[in-house]
Structures are given as structure tokens and as C-alpha cells.
Design a protein that fits this description.
With about 725 residues, the protein is mainly beta. About 10% of the residues lie in helices and about 35% in strands. The chain has 5 domains: about 150 residues, Jelly Rolls; about 80 residues, Immunoglobulin-like (Sandwich), CATH 2.60.40; about 270 residues, TIM Barrel; about 90 residues, Immunoglobulin-like (Sandwich), CATH 2.60.40; about 100 residues, Immunoglobulins (Immunoglobulin-like, Sandwich). The structure holds beta-D-galactopyranose (GAL). Beta-D-galactopyranose (GAL) binds next to loops.
């Protein structure tokens, strides 16, 4: 497929004449958002419009006699595509890909014109629209577009899934468009090194089983991928990546390749500050990396819609387990709307079913009421199209009709002083079917990065309690917290600035205390975060009370010193027993205060100790020496199939590397060279943290980003653009 993302033109007001190629327009590149937006107080009306995109192009030599398609990764939300003035199709789902064949209207000699009329209003005819929604739905052709030139005989779709107990076989279903009775198809399975593992011939219209001895199974610890190449000799080739793995939900949990794994995850929205959904591949991969490496998750729910293949592919490669679902939020519309919801199930499954990371299909509208007629059908469609995966659907309802395989429950019952999770028997009427928590916390305890230490600590503890309690009876298959990142929303839900501060990270992917709870559940790299700056002035009556260390060590050693001491003096050791089901319990440190109001503040040393070794140290209270810490997602950007971008996460830290949440300083960005800033050239370090983004501008080169704040040393980052 040929990348088709350059030299588009855009108008925020579609007209037929624009579609005919007349009049001026703005030059844009895909991925594109119909409107760049502020960080706070987004007015959802700003991105709701009937906009237009168009692009002139000529067909490469040799196109004549072929079949010609345009493939759109996603266009939010209703896209009508015209080629050379002919209306070819309307696609009514902002979260799935679609293909338009334009062979019959193609111009092989001269110029062609593709035009897209894009409705990004909250059009009540399609999901997720029709009532209020707790997130913004943006607008734009926000995933890549491709030109696909194929033979008349072509392999339209390949579905490959492993079968059998030892997973050493695959079933392949082929969708072939050829003359009747046509040719044999050659199937080859290749490993990562490109070596042939198995080959077999197949015929159109038949499922094929291929034996593949000695393959490695895909799992989070060893996410090994294989490739299936389907070839119509001399005509067409299609390749898909897949993994050998069995994903099963049994009454007592989730099993991967016969091994029980607790799904330890968070929900992810696919939005970024300023650009909404329109981020290129590198940002999708970065989010998967953050989930896996920084948050230590083994699972993600793509709330509340299918997300970019780049994200899901990164999950395949990194070994993250994914629960994905059709677009929707509580509301179910009329008959036509329901038909579209069914169509969305078909589109989602056809498009995503080769990804080994996807283990569960969400075939209900998130948190909708029971609608047996609709959900019997969505469930039937899913099973018919994919016999290798279970279905689910997220509800806040208890005892609702479970037509799917797994009861996914948004357990918002925890209020801080009660149990963290409801037992399965109190929620599900189907003891023989699996049960999981698809959301918890979120709006029950919104927490800003600039809230007090106590509040940020409590957010982390609430996540810990739900996670811990969901593991007590061994009947929960997993637990997905709400949510990974803060996100902009409608006025009906936000904190006054139309933001939902429900993330364990802020919108720029900077960590709150709760992120450390998740990070501390993995063993790859040492974690030690302290939930307090130990400033008595920030607590009522100067009493700090119980604070927590979030660590993957066994214990924390605490020492202190005042100005009269040269070295630290040992105070006590604390062990991690409070949350006994967690792999690594947060460690409670009871009222460690040794000075009172009027006394001299101490400096504190916390050491994380595992197997008698110090794995991490935090010095708290040293203060002073504030500086800017800037963490780029990458300093190498690539103009490839689309433009590229880098995220720069910024934190104001003290001399000991602690984030200073009350250093809410103005931060200025200046970018010189062959790239441009996304968003404003100023930000406030909210909770001591903010960020910025830079993007490529169509050519290679170098760029330097200067990050400054009054009184602090300026930080410069050099980027290379290839
Ligand atoms: C759920 C909903 C999510 C989000 C969350 C906030 O009800 O599914 O989209 O709104 O609440 O806690």
C-alpha cells in the first residue's frame, strides 16, 4: 500500500464546489485534526462541523487494469468519499478503517480528485452519539490513508488464529476476490527471522488448518510474533502478523495458554493535548510503552472504541493484553442506530482479529441498559466472525442479562472506607461465566496533579484497595482502573475546566502518585515513590499522619537528619504488608514526624531494600536547586508514511530529583530549526509538571527546543529529523 497522507487540502466548511476542487483551501497533512484545541476549557462545539478534505493525485504507471482502493485508517465521524465527482461511499464509524474502491471512476491519463465530506458533529444517527458522553470525540481524518493498487484477483482478507491445546496449529480463513474456480493460494508461515515454519496450499472459500510444530507461544513475557503470507501466485500477496496463543475465560478467571493470568490494567482514551486524536504512530507506540514499562500493566482496555493499529500492534509486540470494544457510551439509539452498532461489531472484528494482544471483544455499548435483542445479535455476530475469542460488554448494572461470555462490571462501590470490590456472586447471575472489573475509581475520586499530597496519596490507595480486593476470592479475571491519563470532556462531567482528572497520569503522561502504585507492581526496574514531601506546613495541625512508600522492594528503611547531624540517623524499617494480595504492597509509614511546629525541619532518607540490597533511594526535604527536567519520547523523528512527532514531558524537580508539585511555574518553549511546536509556546507546570510536542514539517534536518522558566536554568533538547 502506498502512503497517501501528503498534499491534502482542508476546509472547515464543506461545500459541493470544494468537493469539485474549486476555491481556496488550507494545505494539511494526515493525521489531521479539524481544530487544534486548548488544554483546558475546550468547547466541544469548536470541533463539531461539516468539514472537507480533498487531494489531487495521479496514478502510478501500470495502474490500468488493476483494482484501485483508498484505505482510510479512521475519519471522525461520518465520511462521504467522492472520487472525480462520483459519490462512492459513506462510512459511519469514527473509529474503524474503511476502503473505497474507485477503479470505475479512475482517470489513468490525468489528474484524479478525492474529496471527503466529514461530519464531526455529535450526529445522533450513529454511535456513540445521541446523549451526553464523558469524553470528547474530536474530528478529522486522524489515522493514515493509503492508496492500494491490486490485481483483479486479490486476497481481500486473511484471518489467522491458533487452535488446539498446544497451539501448534493455525486455522486460516481467506476472503478472496477472484474469478470463480480460481487458482490455488499458497500459504507460508514465517518466524521473526524470516525462516519458513510451514507452508500449505489452500483454495478460495475453504478454511485451512496448518500444522506448525516447534513454534513459540505468544505471552506477555515473550510476545513472539509470526507472519502468515498468503499468495495468489503472480497476482497478489497479503501478509499478516499473528501469535500462537489461546486466550480463554473460565469461571474463575483468564487463562493464556492454559496459565491463569490476572489482568492488571487501566483504561486508555486515545487523545492528546491540542491535537485530540490526530497523533502519528510514534505516539501510539509511546503510550503502549508507558503502559508496559512505566505503569507495569499487563492489560489495557481501549475505552470506548477501537484504537489505532499502531497502538494495538505495539501491544502485540510488547505483550500487553487488550480488551477492545465498539464505540458507545450509555445511550442506545433507534433502529438505524442499532444497525450501525451491529455493523461496528463486524468492522471491529474484521479489522482487528489477527492481533494476538486482543483477548476480548466488547460487544455492548459501554454502560448501556440491557437490550437483549440487540446484544444477542452483537454477540452472535462476534462469535460467528471469530470463534477464537470470548465476548463481553461493560455494564454498571448488577445482575444484568449476561448474553456474552464475560461479565465486565464497572465497580464504583469503593468510597475509601469500605471494601474495594464486590464479590462476583453479588453482581453476576452466572457463576459459571468469568467476571472482571472493567473500571473503578475514576469519578469516585477525581485527583489533580496539583491536589494536596493527602488527596494524591488517597487516589493511589483507592486504586490499591480495589486491586487488592479484586484478587481476594480468586474469582475476578482482572481489574482495569479508570484511567491512564486525564482527558478533556464535556461540561456535564468535568472539573469546571471540562477536564476529567481521573488519570493516574496527567494529560501529558506525567505521573501522579497513583502511577507509582501501578509501577510498583512490576519487577523489571526498581520503584520507590513517597507520597509526601514531609512538609508539616501542608497538613492540618502540622500532623503528617500515615504516609506511604510505593515500592517493589520488601521494606523501606527510613533515616533522618537535622542541621546538627552530618549523616542520616536510622529511624525505623517498615514492611509492605498492608495490602496482602498485591504483589508489592504500598508500605505504610506511620506518623514519622520528629519535629513540631516551631522546630527545625529534617531531611529524610528513604531506602528501598530487597534481599538486603538497597534498590532505590529518595532524599526528601533537601529542597532548593529547582530545575527543569525534560523527558523527550525520542530525539529522532522520521518523516515516513506520515509526519512524526515527539512528546516532551516536563517536570520541575528539586536538587534530589523530586517533582515539586507546587512549583506551578510558567514554562516557555522556543523551537528553532526544521520542526514546529504543537500547541502554545507557554504552559503552566500544573502540579510541577507539563509538556509540549514538536512535529516534523516535511523535510529532514535538525531542531533545538529550549525550555525555560524564570529563575531556572534553560534546558535545550536537540532533535534530529530523518
Ligand atoms: C464510567 C464511564 C467512563 C467514565 C468513568 C468515570 O461510568 O464508563 O467513561 O465516565 O465512568 O469514572
Amino acid at each position: 500500500m502506498l502512503a497517501f497522507n501528503e498534499n491534502w487540502e482542508f476546509t472547515s466548511e464543506w461545500s459541493e464546489s470544494f468537493g469539485r476542487g474549486e476555491g481556496p483551501a488550507e494545505a494539511v497533512r494526515i493525521p489531521h485534526t479539524v481544530k487544534e484545541l486548548p488544554l483546558h476549557d475546550i468547547d466541544h462545539r469548536d470541533y463539531q462541523m461539516i468539514s472537507g478534505y480533498r487531494k489531487r493525485f495521479t496514478l502510478p504507471e501500470g495502474s490500468r487494469g488493476k483494482r484501485l482502493f483508498l484505505e482510510f485508517g479512521a475519519a471522525a465521524h461520518i465520511a462521504t468519499v467522492y472520487v472525480n465527482g462520483q459519490e462512492l461511499m459513506t462510512h459511519r464509524n469514527g473509529y474503524t478503517a474503511f476502503r473505497v474502491e474507485f477503479t470505475d471512476v479512475a482517470n489513468y491519463e490525468g489528474e484524479n480528485l478525492v474529496a471527503v465530506r466529514l461530519d464531526s458533529t455529535e450526529n445522533p444517527e450513529i454511535p456513540p452519539f445521541g446523549y451526553v458522553i464523558d469524553y470528547l470525540t474530536y474530528g478529522g481524518i486522524y489515522r493514515p490513508v493509503y492508496l492500494d493498487i491490486r490485481d483483479q484477483d486479490l486476497i481481500d482478507d486473511v484471518f489467522v488464529r491458533s487452535v488446539g491445546k498446544d497451539q501448534a496449529k493455525v486455522t486460516v480463513t481467506l476472503d478472496i476476490k477472484t474469478d470463480p474456480g480460481a487458482k490455488n493460494i499458497l500459504l507460508t508461515i514465517l518466524n521473526r527471522e524470516g525462516e519458513v515454519v510451514a507452508t500449505q496450499e489452500a483454495k478460495a472459500g475453504e478454511d485451512v488448518i496448518i500444522d506448525c510444530p516447534k513454534v513459540r507461544q505468544w505471552c506477555p513475557e515473550d510476545p513472539v510474533l509470526y507472519k502468515l503470507r498468503a499468495e495468489l501466485p503472480g497476482k497478489d500477496i497479503k501478509e499478516v502478523e499473528f501469535g500462537f496463543r489461546a486466550a480463554e475465560f473460565r469461571f474463575d478467571g483468564f487463562y493464556l495458554n492454559g496459565r491463569k493470568i490476572f489482568l492488571h490494567g487501566l483504561n486508555r482514551h486515545q487523545s492528546w493535548p491540542y491535537i485530540g486524536y490526530a497523533a502519528p504512530r510514534s505516539m501510539q507506540i509511546e503510550d503502549a510503552r508507558i503502559a508496559k514499562e512505566e505503569l507495569g500493566l499487563n492489560a489495557v482496555r481501549t475505552s470506548h472504541y477501537p484504537q489505532s493499529h499502531d497502538f494495538i500492534e505495539a501491544c502485540d509486540r510488547m505483550g500487553l493484553l487488550v480488551f477492545t470494544e465498539i464505540p458507545g457510551w450509555q445511550h442506545i439509539g433507534g433502529e438505524q442506530w442499532k444497525e450501525q452498532a451491529k455493523e461496528n461489531v463486524r468492522e471491529m472484528i474484521r479489522e482487528y482479529r489477527n492481533h494476538p494482544s486482543i483477548i476480548l471483544w466488547g460487544v455492548r455499548i459501554n454502560e448501556s441498559m440491557d437490550d437483549d435483542e440487540l446484544y444477542l445479535e452483537t454477540n452472535r455476530i462476534a462469535h460467528e466472525m471469530d470463534d477464537s475469542r470470548c465476548t463481553s460488554g461493560v455494564r454498571y448494572l448488577e445482575k444484568s442479562n449476561l448474553l456474552e461470555d464475560v461479565y465486565a462490571f464497572n465497580d464504583f462501590t469503593h468510597t475509601g472506607d469500605n471494601r474495594g470490590a464486590k464479590p462476583k456472586r453479588e453482581v453476576s447471575l452466572e457463576p459459571t461465566k468469568a467476571f472482571l472489573i472493567s473500571e473503578h475509581n475514576g469519578h469516585m475520586f477525581p485527583t489533580k496533579s496539583f491536589d494536596t499530597w493527602e488527596r494524591r496519596q488517597e487516589q493511589a490507595l483507592r486504586h490499591a484497595r480495589v486491586l487488592n480486593d479484586s484478587m481476594i476470592d480468586g474469582e475476578h479475571a482482572g481489574c482495569f482502573g479508570w484511567c491512564m491519563f486525564d482527558y478533556p470532556t464535556h461540561r456535564d462531567f468535568g472539573s469546571g475546566d471540562r477536564m476529567c482528572y481521573h488519570g493516574v497520569m496527567d494529560a501529558f503522561r506525567n505521573p501522579k502518585t497513583a502511577a507509582a502504585l501501578y509501577a510498583s507492581q512490576q519487577d523489571e526496574s526498581p520503584v520507590l515513590e513517597i507520597s509526601s514531601s514531609m512538609d508539616i506546613g501542608d497538613y492540618p495541625g502540622g500532623a503528617i499522619g500515615t504516609i506511604y512508600a510505593f515500592t517493589n522492594a520488601d521494606r523501606v528503611k527510613l533515616s533522618w537528619k537535622d542541621s546538627s547531624m552530618k549523616d542520616f540517623r536510622f529511624l525505623w524499617n517498615c514492611e509492605g504488608k498492608t495490602f496482602y494480595k498485591l504483589k508489592h504492597s504500598p508500605i505504610a509509614i506511620d506518623d514519622p514526624i520528629t519535629h513540631t511546629w516551631g522546630g527545625e525541619a529534617s531531611v529524610w532518607k528513604f531506602e528501598a531494600i530487597k534481599d538486603s540490597q538497597v534498590t532505590a533511594t529518595r532524599i526528601i526535604g533537601g529542597r532548593g536547586g529547582l530545575r527543569i527536567q525534560a523527558i523527550p519520547s525520542s530525539t529522532e523523528l522520521r518523516e515516513g508514511e506520515t509526519w512524526d512527532m515527539a512528546a516532551v514531558r516536563i517536570r520541575i524537580i528539586d536538587c534530589d530529583g523530586n517533582i515539586c508539585p507546587y512549583a506551578q511555574l510558567p514554562v516557555r518553549f522556543e523551537l528553532k530549526g526544521d520542526a514546529e511546536l504543537i500547541g502554545p509556546d507557554m504552559a503552566t507546570a500544573e502540579g510541577g509538571m507539563c509538556g509540549t510536542y514538536i512535529r516534523t514539517v516535511g523535510h529532514a534536518g535538525k531542531a533545538v527546543l529550549s525550555i525555560s522558566s524564570p529563575g531556572l536554568e534553560t534546558v535545550k533538547i536537540e532533535f534530529e529529523i530523518f
